[in-house]
């Protein structure tokens, strides 16, 4: 691979984005060959001459609306969802020049820029149940104010089904705007210093004729008072100005009933005629030069004069339904302006995620193949459930739900191979997961049908195929030596395959041919067996090579079990079997992913790392499955759903191996890096919004320089450059700050509120007094430590009430803290260590009343007090009669505890209020305060 340029101060920097969804805008001129389009929440200025991307980042939601000024100088983008924004960018530098925060309650549905580039018009997104309907806002974006110039409610929008989806300015008069939805159209004027709407009048006969239409988009005709609206059946409706006459306010003749219908400044329009221009839905209309441009579902682009007579047509693009067309600012040099038809070169965006560059002169070509234009961008036509990077070459495989695999060169960003995945019956298969082996010999593809294919990574030609069930395959993992392949499916089975030589069947020898020599056997993939090792969804599956050279395979699932499989002397006859009994590793949390510790494996122990839905990392001894350490996960997004080590070059071996850096992802939006050892230090982790919604797949390049992420439904794959030096700089800055504030524990203290911190210090020193005897008169020895047995008392005094198992884990963690490095154990804990322990173990969120309600549902809803106390004394970590009495007395007082009627029924609300004494007010996140 070629050298990667210097990176920014971020540990992950977006380098390239594969995909296209939305509209494309030409930025081409005499001196520039560029287009603008979007992928997910990123705007892209793509120079198709130099094949470089300029990435515009500033949105946290998917960009749903874009527009470009007539002179191509300004780009405006808008998103919808929480914290939505409108951003105006300089198209030459790619820098944001204006950001409008929270333009509409639910985000933006459509956006337009005026012909003089001074104003933006935005339509708010309508969500069912949202109060207030839909708004149209006018923004003077170049002014210093952040408020809209005018805002008005769109008439007769009752739900998302009737919402307007298109907005456009009159290019000759910015004071006129038109919007429309599926069933109505509204013209607006703001020359009276307010937005005034008007819905065109339709006669009863017109309404009868047009009743089955659904309006798609509307534009003004340049230099005229008229406007046109396209429809789903290929027609366009022409509207023009009308004189106000007596009786024009007749409600019966108004197609929408929108008001006010007339004012002195109302832009009165009426339908003049409708004309059939296309056989299918019209998706796009615009004017260029003196022509009306129409494109749609039939994949054609047609040009009409202003009398709607066809002048030119481009019908051989063969790229799918057209979503929009955009033109360069200048006429091409090879076109005669005196010709009957001439226009600037243009680009076409399609719903199949292609961007096609079309020269005006192609209209004159005779052969259809010469009229197809040039593919500038090939996006991804469907959801992307999986990606995989080649272990030794700069290549990327993208699995697409339309049943295809795409092989890309990561450095040149060129598409090398596209292959359709077919099953035995000829049905198209949908890929769900991908995995390369460690040497790049095989690529495994898991399908939603349960089919497993092993293919050649260069050609995607099948080398082996297996069907062991009808459940979707969810995980694929090769062993480090590439001789084993394990897969997990949605039915909670784990299957195992081996790459080995199978003895030749002697029955294949031809009769009466003593000279026959069997062919030299070659290794192939062979099925070993499968095992239903989990009762809940499998959330992690990982191979490792243990320090003694033994291969190990483990899995975790939502059933809270950690399972290790026996790979010793395993054959097809023995099938897949377990090495030992499954270990329950959680009591209330659910494991969400796992990873073998990348740096351990010495004389003392190997470890398995798990992450759970309570934002905790846990490290487990690989042999006895005891918990060695619990630490805080990154909390930038939701619970972690994947962990992958970032390889680094080992100069001594001249090969890539594990590093102290791990890439993580969450189910929604976030991807980041965390450094091991995992100790909960917030400075050792970073995260960013990689996609606006779900992160469906993450893969790390074999040289560790790139992280590739897929966004599932956003049809986008992002390539991120990795800079571990940037993370190290962040850690060093935090260390310097901590040294000035009193040591490394100060970094953890920032995660505790000041009042709790003061209590923590007081309790710790009181625990030292208790250890030496509270009533002693002897001289006290100030050791700065307390015995490990005091840990449960300390954390409970601070309001964290761990289970007995969790207490044992905390004590064990400190006891074995140095065991891996030194082989020695520890019997005491100091203040700094206790602060770190408390921060890492205490719950991120408090217990909520909803959780108590769910717990009572598990118990059967309302339950007799006698039955509840019996369960507390007999099930789980049982509570003795005396302890239960003391607990209830502490919570309710002596009278309250003794006054509980054994035959009375207790429900969730009564338990939380009467017994636990929770306040009615709930804090952020639903926790009770």
TrEMBL record:
UniProt cross-references to InterPro entries, sorted A to Z: EF-hand-dom_pair, WD40/YVTN_repeat-like_dom_sf, WD40_repeat_CS, WD40_repeat_dom_sf, WD40_rpt, WD_repeat_EMAP
Gene3D superfamilies the UniProt entry points to: EF-hand, YVTN repeat-like/Quinoprotein amine dehydrogenase
Record-linked SMART domains: WD40
First and last residues of every WD repeat: 377-418, 688-730
Keywords: Cell projection, Repeat, WD repeat
A GO term from the CC aspect: motile cilium
Subcellular location: Cell projection, Cilium
A UniProt-annotated Pfam family: WD40
PROSITE patterns xrefs: WD_REPEATS_1, WD_REPEATS_2
Protein name: Cilia- and flagella-associated protein 251
Naturally occurring in which organism (per UniProt): Triparma columacea
């Amino acid at each position: 691979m070629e050298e990667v340029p210097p990176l920014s101060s971020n540990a992950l920097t977006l380098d390239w984005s594969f995909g296209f969804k939305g509209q494309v805008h030409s930025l081409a001129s005499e001196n520039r060959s560029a287009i603008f389009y979007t992928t997910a929440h990123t705007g892209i200025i793509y120079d198709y001459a130099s094949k470089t991307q300029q990435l515009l980042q500033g949105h946290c939601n998917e960009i749903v609306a874009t527009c470009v000024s007539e002179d191509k100088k300004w780009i405006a983008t808008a998103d919808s969802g929480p914290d939505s924004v409108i951003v105006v960018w300089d198209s030459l530098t790619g820098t944001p020049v204006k950001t409008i925060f929270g333009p509409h309650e639910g985000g933006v549905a459509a956006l337009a820029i005026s012909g003089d580039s001074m104003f933006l018009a935005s339509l708010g997104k309508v969500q069912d149940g949202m109060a207030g309907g839909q708004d149209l806002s006018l923004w003077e974006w170049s002014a210093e104010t952040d408020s809209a110039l005018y805002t008005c409610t769109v008439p007769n929008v009752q739900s998302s089904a009737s919402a307007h989806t298109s907005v456009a300015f009159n290019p000759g008069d910015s004071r006129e705007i038109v919007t429309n939805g599926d069933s109505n159209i509204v013209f607006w004027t703001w020359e009276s210093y307010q937005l005034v709407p008007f819905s065109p009048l339709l006669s009863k006969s017109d309404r009868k004729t047009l009743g089955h239409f659904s309006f798609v988009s509307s534009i003004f005709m340049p230099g005229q008072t008229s406007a046109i609206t396209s429809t789903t059946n290929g027609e366009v409706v022409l509207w023009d100005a009308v004189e106000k006459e007596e009786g024009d306010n007749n409600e019966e003749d108004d197609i929408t009933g929108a008001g006010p219908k007339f004012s002195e400044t109302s832009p009165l329009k009426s339908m003049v005629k409708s004309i059939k221009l296309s056989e299918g839905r019209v998706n796009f209309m615009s004017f260029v030069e003196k022509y009306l441009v129409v494109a749609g579902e039939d994949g054609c682009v047609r040009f009409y004069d202003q009398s709607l007579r066809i002048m030119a047509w481009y019908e051989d693009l063969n790229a799918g339904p057209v979503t929009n067309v955009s033109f360069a600012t200048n006429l091409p040099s090879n076109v005669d302006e005196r010709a009957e038809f001439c226009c600037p070169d243009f680009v076409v965006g399609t719903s199949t995620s292609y961007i096609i560059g079309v020269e005006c002169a192609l209209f004159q070509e005779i052969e259809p193949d010469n009229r197809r234009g040039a593919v500038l961008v090939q996006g991804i036509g469907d959801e992307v459930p999986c990606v995989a990077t080649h272990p030794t070459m700069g290549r990327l495989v993208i699995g697409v739900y339309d049943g295809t695999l795409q092989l890309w060169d990561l450095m040149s960003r060129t598409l090398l191979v596209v292959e359709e995945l077919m099953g035995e019956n000829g049905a198209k298969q949908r890929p769900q997961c991908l995995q390369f082996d460690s040497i790049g010999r095989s690529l495994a593809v898991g399908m939603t049908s349960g089919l497993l294919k092993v293919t050649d990574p260069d050609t995607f030609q099948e080398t082996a195929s297996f069907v062991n069930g009808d459940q979707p395959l969810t995980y694929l993992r090769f062993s480090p030596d590439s001789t084993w392949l394990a897969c997990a499916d949605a039915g909670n089975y784990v299957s195992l395959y081996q790459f080995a030589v199978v003895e030749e069947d002697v029955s294949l020898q031809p009769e009466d041919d003593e000279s026959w020599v069997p062919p030299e056997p070659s290794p192939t993939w062979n099925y070993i067996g499968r095992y239903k090792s989990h009762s809940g969804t499998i959330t992690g599956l990982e191979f490792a090579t243990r320090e003694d050279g033994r291969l190990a395979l483990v899995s975790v699932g939502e059933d809270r079990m950690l399972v290790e499989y026996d790979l010793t002397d395993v054959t097809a006859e023995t099938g897949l079997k377990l090495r030992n009994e499954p270990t329950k590793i959680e009591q209330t949390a659910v494991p969400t992913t796992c990873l073998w510790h990348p740096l351990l494996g010495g004389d003392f122990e190997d470890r398995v790392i798990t992450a759970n839905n309570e934002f905790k990392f846990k490290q487990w001894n690989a042999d006895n499955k005891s918990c060695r350490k619990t630490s805080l996960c990154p909390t930038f997004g939701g619970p972690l759903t994947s962990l992958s080590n970032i390889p680094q070059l080992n100069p001594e071996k001249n090969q890539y191996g594990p590093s102290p850096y791990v890439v993580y992802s969450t189910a929604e939006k976030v991807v980041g890096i965390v450094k091991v050892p995992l100790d909960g230090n917030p400075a050792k982790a970073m995260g960013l919004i990689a996609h606006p919604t779900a992160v469906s797949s993450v893969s790390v390049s074999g040289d560790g320089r790139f992280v590739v992420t897929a966004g599932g439904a956003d049809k986008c794959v992002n390539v991120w450059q990795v800079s571990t030096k940037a993370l190290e700089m962040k850690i060093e800055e935090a260390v310097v700050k901590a040294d000035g504030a009193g040591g490394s524990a100060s970094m953890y203290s920032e995660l505790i509120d000041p009042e709790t911190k003061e209590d923590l210090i007081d309790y710790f020193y009181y625990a030292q007094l208790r250890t030496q005897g509270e009533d002693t008169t002897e001289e006290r020895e100030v050791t700065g430590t307390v015995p490990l047995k005091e840990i449960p008392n300390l954390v409970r005094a601070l309001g964290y009430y761990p289970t007995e198992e969790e207490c044992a884990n905390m004590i064990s963690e400190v006891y074995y803290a140095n065991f891996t490095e030194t082989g020695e154990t520890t019997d005491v804990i100091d203040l700094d260590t206790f602060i770190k322990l408390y921060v890492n173990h205490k719950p991120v969120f408090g217990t909520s009343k909803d959780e108590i309600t769910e717990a009572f549902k598990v118990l059967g809803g309302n339950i007799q007090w006698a039955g509840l106390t019996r369960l507390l004394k007999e099930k789980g970590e049982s509570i003795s009669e005396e302890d239960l009495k003391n607990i209830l007395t502490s919570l309710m007082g002596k009278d309250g505890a003794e006054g509980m009627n054994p035959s009375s029924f207790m429900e969730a609300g009564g338990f939380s209020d009467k017994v636990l004494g929770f306040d009615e007010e709930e804090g952020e996140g639903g926790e009770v305060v």
